[in-house]
Amino acid sequence: MDVRRESEATPTKNRTGVERKSERELVVTRTVNAPARLVFEAWTKAELFRRWWVPKSYGLTLLSCEMDVRVGGQYRLVFRHEDSTMEFFGTYLEVTPHSRLVWTNEEGDNGKTITTVTFEENAGKTLLVVQDLYPSKEALDSGSTGAMPETLDQLDELLVSLGSSTETK
Amino acid sequence: MVQYRQTHFDASFGALSDATRRGVLEQLGRADASITALAERFHMTLTGMKKHVGVLEQAGLVSTEKVGRVRTCKLGLRGLEEEAAWIERYRQLWAARFDELDIVVEELKRKEKANGRKKRK
Predict the structure, then answer these.
(1) Which fold has domain B2-75?
(2) What number is the average pLDDT over the span B28-45?
(3) How far is A73 from chain B (nearest CA, A)?
(4) Per the CB < 8 Å rule, is A30 touching B94?
(5) What is the CATH number of the domain that holds A127?
(6) Are A58 and B82 inside 8 Å of each other by CB?
(7) For residue A138, what are the contacts with CB-CB under 8 A and spacing of at least 6?
């Protein structure tokens, strides 16, 4: 999964690339067919951001989305999943219009994860690079931000579900 | 078949119930390693690590190969599938997000165009 290769957009549908760069670092890339200022707007205006951040297919309802996009400003997202609610919150560390956003994720127990998003415009298109830097390898593996699927716990769940399906046979 | 699968699941449960063995799987997810290196990494004796690797091997989570005097461990088929599946799920989340972002951005483009036309009038 080479970033440069993934970032070359196919004419019909843009590819999403994911690479585990190191023990603490995950990087996602995607090209959007629009100038950086519009893409940046969609990342920094709460009423736009809330329309795309939670994919419709994920069974999560975004109850509220507050974003004070300036250095030192806070954000807070509240989701409902079945009967419980989850909160994601943090602080914007860098806000450079149309090119760079950095924020912390402070809801985890294992320290802060730092998300850096860069917007690189080229010929009317924008290459998005989203880097999540976890406080430790363990935090990445255990998915402390809540947005991350858990590796081995999921394997456990898979085995449980497979195990119970064999019992019913 | 049912019997075989049940046995396999029991082995997997047992293999994953131990923190060191989960650690070994994570370690092998990054790179293959010899039993000696794993023993050092997890601060245990060679014999202790051999036992852990044996349990993981039986569960199909790890496979080992002896070259010369060194036994090298790598993720077994089940472990590899899980590592790939995890990254793939993460990719799918972002792909779904970005597909919705595309819709929002297209709308912004259309609005900007419409506004641009108005301004020129």
Answers:
(1) Arc Repressor Mutant, subunit A (1.10.10)
(2) 91
(3) 23
(4) yes
(5) 3.30.530.20
(6) no
(7) A110
Chain A residues with beta carbon closer than 8 angstroms to that of B102? 14, 32-33
Q: Is the pLDDT of residue B7 over 60?
A: no
Q: Which residue of A has its CA nearest to B83?
A: A151
pLDDT in tens, A24-72: 888 999 999 999 999 999 999 999 999 999 877 777 788 999 999 999 9
The answer to whether position A154 is within a domain reads no
- Closest CA relative to residue A140, chosen from A23, A19, A27: A23
In this model, does residue A88 exceed pLDDT 50?
yes
- What is the count of structural domains for chain A? 1
A19 located within any domain = yes
Which sequence spans correspond to the domains of chain B? 2-75, 76-121
Tokens at A106, concatenated: 């402070």
In a mutational test of the A interface, the residue from B97, B103, B115 whose CB has the highest number of chain A CBs within 10 Å is B97
How far apart, in whole angstroms, are the C-alpha atoms of residue B2 and residue A169?
8
A156:B16 CB<8 A: yes
- Residue A78 amino acid letter: V
Instruction: Find all residues with CB under 8 Å of A94, minimum gap 6, and list them.
Output: A71, A100, A101, A102, A116
pLDDT digits (tens, 9 = 90+) for B54-112: 988 888 888 998 888 888 998 887 766 766 777 787 888 899 999 999 999 999 999 99
Contact B27, B49 (CB under 8 A): no
Calculate how close chain B gets to A30, using CA atoms only, in Å.
8
What is the band of A140 on the pLDDT scale with cuts at 50, 70, 90? confident
